[in-house]
Design brief:
single chain, 87% helix, transcription regulation, phosphoprotein, FUN14 domain-containing protein 2, transmembrane
């Protein structure tokens, strides 16, 4: 009788473990994005992932907004001062030389973009794989980033 009770307990334990494994495999993001939903999705709850993604996204968006404003002000102010100095006669711009340098830079940029093709493709593939594996954190980050830009 002791053996049969032990056998029943082991059978129940095996069924509970099987049910737990089945439940782990049936998460909604697994059904949408495949069974390999990544390490972050398995370590933390959905609420924690969204909070982490949202907070980091908000910080990134806020910094992006502030740095963008400073950069735009610096570039715009610099161009304005150069134009005022040019019109006032303080500086003389050799426009033919500027055009020559711009064309040279265009050629170098075109040459370097042709060489960077495979590296860019692997970066895009790795980024896509990361987004698929960590979809909850990524969606929280995007939402936080947009909120950070708006604030």
């Amino acid at each position: 009788m002791a053996n049969s009770r032990k056998d029943v307990e082991e059978e129940i334990y095996d069924k509970v473990v099987d049910l737990t494994e089945y439940a782990k495999r049936q998460r909604w993001w697994n059904r949408l994005f495949g069974t390999n939903s990544g390490p972050v999705a398995e370590k933390y709850s959905v609420a924690t992932q969204i909070a982490i993604g949202g907070a980091s996204g908000w910080c990134a968006g806020y910094l992006f907004q502030k740095v963008g404003k400073v950069a735009a002000t610096a570039v715009g102010g610099g161009l304005l001062l150069l134009q005022i100095a040019n019109n006032s006669g303080y500086i003389q711009v050799d426009w033919k030389r500027v055009e020559k340098d711009v064309n040279k830079a265009k050629k170098q940029l075109k040459k370097s973009t042709n060489q960077a093709g495979p590296e860019l493709n692997t970066f895009v593939e790795k980024s896509t794989e990361f987004v698929k594996k960590n979809i909850v954190v990524t969606s929280g980050f995007i939402g936080g980033f947009l909120l950070g830009l708006a604030s």
